[in-house]
Design brief:
By secondary structure, this protein is of the alpha+beta class. The chain folds into 3 domains: 92 residues, Rossmann fold, CATH 3.40.50; 135 residues, D-amino Acid Aminotransferase, Chain A, domain 1 (2-Layer Sandwich); 62 residues, Dna Ligase, domain 1 (2-Layer Sandwich). Strands 8, 9, 10, 11, 12 and 13 form a 6-stranded antiparallel beta sheet that branches. It has a 4-stranded antiparallel beta sheet with strand order 4-7-5-6, with no helix packed on it. Strand 8 and strand 9 form a beta hairpin. The chain is globular. The termini are close together.
Length: 319
């Protein structure tokens, strides 16, 4: 595509969320890539004075490289809407819904996208009895990057019922989402907006050396093997792409999203479940969206530029 220069892009990163370090890695990678293409780039590690700092910089567009709240939950999106500054990735309403795993289910399941059952529970309840039959998964309702995820099994060393003293997300979050544990394979599909509608890039299988695909395994080199394209039956690969695109559309995602799946390969198509859709997927050296894009012939700088292009298109400022 033609260069968008002259263009001043502010890359917003860091902040104070649990995923601060991942965001800094994403943001600096994006900034380096955009600078390599000749754009004027301002890097901003978000502080409480973020609105004043952005106003002072006066960018043409903000590349939102934040992960977690408040950059992924609609807060920053609302601020930028009020300031009248175009920004990448999804808008306010989509961000509010997609970061909340329970709201996401309400938005997607009625439209035929399979997701695990379960319910939201107060952490205090866990010390009295299991909320659902073991094995089950506990996760924060509105965190990303598998922050605070625990798998509770009959063999867990957390006790039965869970002990207050056992280390787990119940010590850090007042409420958690309890879902049935789905055995099988970890899959993920990125979707990108290209101006001709959302397009799935393919399916990656994630094979973890030990444990499950938690925060440490995601962002520690050598912990997880990425297989792209995943070696899957044709119908499962097709469904992953279809569900990811449908989720992108139903949630109103913009720019790029990534949907994560578990597939119980003993159950065929009935064993495929969408776990969540990420509206601000990572852009680090170990991240899955750049990896899938590269596999489709889209280099990292071009991917960053496509995301900026989408933001300008939506704002009516492209071309």
């Amino acid at each position: 595509m033609a260069r968008l220069a002259p263009l001043h892009i502010l890359v917003l990163m860091g902040g104070w969320a649990n995923e601060r370090e991942v965001s800094l890695s994403s943001g600096n990678g994006v900034a380096d890539a955009l600078e390599s293409l000749g754009y004027q780039v301002t890097r901003l590690d978000m502080g409480r004075d973020v609105a004043a700092r952005i106003a002072e910089a006066a960018p043409d567009v903000v590349f939102n490289a934040l992960h977690g709240a408040p950059g992924e939950d609609g807060t920053v999106q609302g601020m930028l809407d009020l300031m009248g500054i175009p920004y990448t990735h999804s808008g306010l309403a989509t961000s509010v819904i997609a970061i909340d795993k329970e709201l996401t289910k309400h938005a997607l399941v009625p439209h035929g996208i399979p997701m695990p059952g379960g319910r939201v529970v107060k952490s205090e309840e866990l010390f009295e009895a299991d909320p659902i039959a073991r094995p089950y998964v506990l996760k924060p309702v509105n965190e990303g990057s598998s922050v605070g995820v625990a798998i509770v099994t009959d063999d867990s060393n957390c006790g039965n019922p869970i002990s207050r003293q056992a280390r787990g997300p119940w010590q850090d979050f007042k409420t958690l989402l309890a879902e049935p544990f789905i055995r099988g394979r970890e899959l993920t599909t990125a979707v990108i907006d290209t101006g001709e509608g959302p397009r799935a890039l393919g399916v990656t299988e994630l094979i973890v050396a030990s444990g499950f695909y938690d925060y440490e395994n995601k962002y520690t080199a050598g912990r997880t093997e990425h297989i792209f394209p995943a070696q899957l039956p044709e119908d499962i690969a097709r469904l992953c792409c279809e569900y990811a695109v449908e989720a992108h559309k139903r949630l109103g995602c913009e720019g790029v999203s990534r949907s994560d799946f578990r597939w119980d390969d003993e159950r065929g198509e009935a064993g495929l479940f969408l776990l969540e859709t990420n509206t601000q997927p990572g852009m680090t050296p170990l991240s899955l969206v750049p990896e899938q894009a590269k596999g489709c012939g889209i280099a990292y700088p071009e991917l960053c530029e496509l995301i900026v292009e989408d933001a300008l298109r939506r704002a009516g400022k492209l071309g």
